[in-house]
Structure formats: structure tokens, C-alpha cells
Write a structure and sequence with these properties.
- This protein is 30% helix and 22% strand.
- The chain is α/β, with parallel strands linked by helices and 256 residues long.
- It folds into two domains: 4-78 and 181-252, HAD superfamily/HAD-like (Rossmann fold, 3-Layer(aba) Sandwich), CATH 3.40.50.1000; 83-178, Hypothetical Protein, Haloacid Dehalogenase-like Hydrolase, Chain: A, domain 2 (2-Layer Sandwich).
- The strands form two sheets. The chain has an eight-stranded mixed sheet with strand order 5-4-3-2-1-11-12-13. It has a five-stranded antiparallel sheet with strand order 7-6-8-10-9.
- β6 and β7 form a beta hairpin.
- α1 (23-34) packs parallel to α8.
- The longest helix has 14 residues, at 83-96.
Length: 256
């Protein structure tokens, strides 16, 4: 029996076309809550950058691709990068002018805004923070970077960050997190908190950063708008976000 359900935001809960949650999805979430199901956001976004869903519908948030987990008002898990890797990232982006968002538990800082950053942010209707000095960033725990660079730049910055890895769903940006991290780790922390087994959870996603959680969950559902690798990692492929994909999958599994 499924007792907890985890949802990616962009391209899953929220349409890339309208930047809104379909009404069919909202009704499905309300129905699950009425059954006593635990519902969680599982996103690459920082909580401060979640402005496109009603967070009151959820019991908690797995944010920053699993590096931060909050249940209710309590942060139960964080996973920061080694300071040496953060120093290397700061030096690289300052030298090469790559727009990057540095994300801690309760803050976000950005060094510059470039055309690539504007284009990448527009994909998910993201408001970029005002650029600021990042020289003191290594003095703070950093959980994730949003790196607005191409694949060659990604490979170059990671050579100086051996304890980190990247996940990418567009040519415009990648998320850099501690090596071995991922949404599945955040989900595991939630399940441990409640004493649930992984077989008792379900996850919905559409991007490459969702692959680990779809494989980890008892039932992994890929949206119809996902690419082939994501669909291959799932137990079930539903229709797209704009075609009531979440509600369709829940009906398929007898949960609505």
C-alpha cells in the first residue's frame, strides 16, 4: 500500500507551457490528502524559489535535489559540499564569468546574470536573484549550485570539484550537488522519519534528476513529456502534465 507520494515540480506538477498546476492535479492531490496520504514535493529548486505551487498541499519538501529535507517546520536533513569544492567553484565562475546560483539551507546568492541564465530561468519561469559579491561564499555551507554553463564548462568546473557531480535536463544549465546525493537520498530520509518502507512510496518525475528517485520508489511514474531515459527508469509512463498525467496514473494504480 502506498503511504507517501513524491512529486517533482517543473514538468510534473507544473506545466512547462502554462507554468501552472493543472486543475486535475490539484483535485488529485486533495483526494490523496483526504485518504490520509503523505504528500511531498521533490524538486531541484530551493524553497525560496518555489513560487508556482501551493505548498500547503504538502507535508514537506525534498529540495535542492535531495540535499535539504523539511517536514512541517523542521529541517531533518542537509548535505553540504566540501569547502574545498566550493572554493574551486567560486574561483572558476569568477574567472570565466559563468552565472551561478549558490544555495544554502536558507539563502541563495548569485554572482552574475548572463543571457544563458535568463534563457534557462525562462524555461521554468524562475525569477533570478540580484547579483551580489560571492567572495565569502566558502564561509557558508553550500548544498547546491545552479550552474548556467554548457557541457564543456560543466566538465571543466567539476575537475576542480572532485567530491561533487552534476545533473542536467537542458543545455542551458546543470545542478551541481555533493557526489552520491540525489532526490532518492532525500526520499529515504523522509521514509526513515515516518518508518515507511520504500515499497510504500510512489514518485512522479520528468527530468534526468528524477531518475534516481523513480528507480528508488516502490512505484516510479514518468510523465509523458519526459525523455526516453527517464521513461526507461519508471515502472509506469503516464500522459503529459497538461494531459492530466498525474490523475491518470493515480487512477491506473487504483488510488483515485
Amino acid at each position: 500500500m502506498v503511504r507517501a507520494v513524491f512529486f517533482d515540480i517543473d514538468g510534473t506538477l507544473v506545466s512547462f507551457k502554462t507554468h501552472r498546476m493543472p486543475e486535475s492535479t490539484r483535485k488529485a492531490l486533495e483526494a490523496l490528502r483526504g485518504q490520509g496520504m503523505k504528500l511531498f514535493i521533490s524538486t531541484g529548486r530551493h524553497e525560496l524559489l518555489i513560487d508556482n505551487v501551493d505548498k500547503s498541499l504538502f507535508d514537506g519538501i525534498v529540495s535542492l535535489n535531495g540535499q535539504c529535507v523539511r517536514i512541517g517546520d523542521e529541517v531533518i536533513h542537509t548535505n553540504a559540499m566540501p569547502v574545498e569544492d566550493v572554493r574551486a567553484a567560486v574561483a572558476f565562475v569568477r574567472k570565466h564569468g559563468v552565472a551561478t546560483i549558490f544555495e544554502g539551507v536558507d539563502f541563495i546568492r548569485m554572482n552574475a546574470v548572463t543571457d544563458m541564465a535568463r534563457e534557462g530561468a525562462a524555461l521554468i519561469n524562475l525569477d533570478l536573484p540580484e547579483p551580489t559579491d560571492i567572495s565569502d561564499i566558502p564561509n557558508h555551507p553550500i548544498l547546491q549550485l545552479i550552474f548556467f554553463g554548457n557541457i564543456e564548462q560543466e566538465e571543466a568546473v567539476l575537475r576542480g570539484m572532485p567530491a561533487c557531480e552534476a545533473t542536467r535536463w537542458t543545455h542551458l544549465l546543470c545542478d551541481i550537488i555533493p557526489r552520491g546525493g540525489g532526490k532518492h537520498i532525500g526520499i529515504q530520509k523522509v521514509l526513515d522519519h515516518y518508518g515507511f518502507a520504500r515499497e510504500e512510496c510512489m514518485a512522479f518525475g520528468d527530468g534526468d534528476n528524477d531518475i534516481t528517485m523513480l528507480r528508488y520508489a516502490g512505484i516510479g511514474v514518468a510523465m509523458g513529456n519526459a525523455d526516453a531515459a527517464v521513461k526507461a527508469a519508471a515502472d509506469y509512463v503516464t500522459t503529459g502534465t497538461d494531459a492530466s498525467g498525474i490523475a491518470k496514473a493515480l487512477r491506473h494504480f487504483g488510488m483515485l
